[in-house]
Design goal:
This protein has a domain at 144-199. It is 78% helix and 0% strand. It contains nine helices and no strands. Helix 4 (72-104) packs across helix 5 (117-137) and helix 7 packs parallel to helix 9 (186-193). It is elongated, with a radius of gyration of 41 Å. The mean pLDDT is 88.
Length: 199
């Protein structure tokens, strides 16, 4: 090769390097992305010849890694627990649907989302729990005293208002209580007996 042709090749190579070096960071990033996309398209075309190849290879490689690290048995057990949890989650969803359907008085297909199921069910259960709790408490002396005090506490605002109300309100209160067959608490009786203040 002649010295002049060597010189021309070196100059051409240097010119190409200087042109590449003259690219901005954004231009270099652009060309990297463009070339990367071309490579990805080619990989996709090759992968289409055996679509499950990469998944199979990844699964086998992962299994080998687990075995070589002595983690295979633990991983199998963990996978089994996850499957059991999925089944339990599915069963939980079915039971929540059944609970909500019964509480709402609708067909199970009308339930929709079970979000907030516990709150809604507890809201429906609470009055019954309180009623049964009162029945159970009434079977002992200590329980009866607790029920009596709770009733006084629940009616305390009415008791205060009754104590400071006019004769007409007290009379109406007594008539409504008789009509409803609702016995006043001892404090309510005392409040009804207080002589109204006349302005």
């Amino acid at each position: 090769m002649r010295p002049q042709s060597i010189r021309i090749k070196l100059q051409t190579h240097s010119l190409k390097e200087s042109n590449m070096a003259g690219l901005t960071v954004a231009e270099k990033e652009h060309w990297k992305e463009r070339l990367s996309k071309r490579i990805d398209r080619r990989i996709e075309a090759i992968t289409a010849e055996d679509p499950q190849l990469l998944d199979r290879v990844h699964g086998e490689a992962r299994q080998r890694a687990l075995e070589s690290l002595g983690l295979a048995d633990n991983q199998r057990e963990l996978d089994e627990i996850r499957k059991q949890k999925e089944k339990l989650d599915e069963r939980e969803e079915v039971l929540k649907n059944q609970l909500l359907a019964r509480v709402r008085g609708v067909h199970i297909n009308e339930v929709g989302s079970t979000y907030g199921c516990d709150t809604e069910v507890n809201k429906a259960i609470r009055p019954r729990v309180e009623a049964h709790e009162a029945q159970i408490l009434m079977s002992s002396d200590v329980g009866r005293r607790i029920v009596e005090l709770r009733r006084e506490k629940d009616n305390l605002l009415d008791t205060v208002w009754l104590a400071s109300s006019s004769a007409q309100i007290k009379e109406l209160w007594g008539k409504v209580a008789t009509f409803l067959r609702d016995e006043p608490t001892p404090l309510e009786r005392d409040a009804l007996a207080i002589t109204p203040v006349v302005d």
